[in-house]
C-alpha cells in the first residue's frame, strides 16, 4: 500500500509549507489535506479517512493530545498511520503519544523523506 493521502495538522504555516514541499518531492501523487488545529482536523476526518495523519502537539484551539483523545473516542476507524511531528524533545510527550494504538511514529521537525518512508513502510507492514 502506498501513501495515497495525508492529513497534516499543524498551526504553523511555515511547517505546513515544509510538509507539503517534502511530501510533493517524496511523491507528487499523494493527496494532501490540511488542518491548522485539532478541531479542524476532526471536521475533515468526519468526511474522509486519510492513509496517514501527521500531527503537531502544540496548537491553539485543540492541541495534539486533545485531538488524540477526541479522535480515539469519536472514531471507530482510525487512519492506519498517525505520526506525531513536533519540536518537543520531551520523553514524556513521546510516551504519552505512543500510548494510543493508532499512533505509530513520533518524529521531530522538520518532516523528511525518511519520515515518509517510515510511514509508507508502516502501511505496507
From TrEMBL:
PROSITE patterns: RESPONSE_REGULATORY. Pfam families: Response_reg (PF00072). The keyword Transcription applies. The keyword Transcription applies. Residues 5-124 form the Response regulatory domain. Keywords: Phosphoprotein, Transcription, Transcription regulation. It comes from the Bacteria. The modification 4-aspartylphosphate is found at residue 56. PANTHER family: RESPONSE REGULATORY DOMAIN-CONTAINING PROTEIN (PTHR44591:SF3), STRESS RESPONSE REGULATOR PROTEIN 1 (PTHR44591). This is Response regulator.
Amino acid at each position: 500500500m502506498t501513501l495515497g493521502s495525508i492529513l497534516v495538522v499543524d498551526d504553523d504555516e511555515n511547517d505546513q509549507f515544509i510538509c507539503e514541499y517534502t511530501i510533493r518531492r517524496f511523491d507528487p501523487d499523494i493527496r494532501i489535506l490540511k488542518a491548522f488545529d485539532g478541531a479542524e482536523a476532526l471536521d475533515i476526518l468526519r468526511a474522509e479517512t486519510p492513509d496517514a495523519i501527521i500531527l503537531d502537539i502544540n496548537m491553539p484551539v485543540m492541541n495534539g493530545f486533545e485531538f488524540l483523545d477526541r479522535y480515539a473516542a469519536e472514531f471507530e476507524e482510525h487512519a492506519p498511520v498517525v505520526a506525531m511531528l513536533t519540536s518537543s524533545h520531551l520523553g514524556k510527550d513521546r510516551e504519552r503519544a505512543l500510548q494510543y494504538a493508532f499512533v505509530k511514529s513520533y518524529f521531530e521537525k522538520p518532516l523528511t523523506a525518511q519520515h515518509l518512508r517510515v510511514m509508507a513502510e508502516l502501511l505496507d507492514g
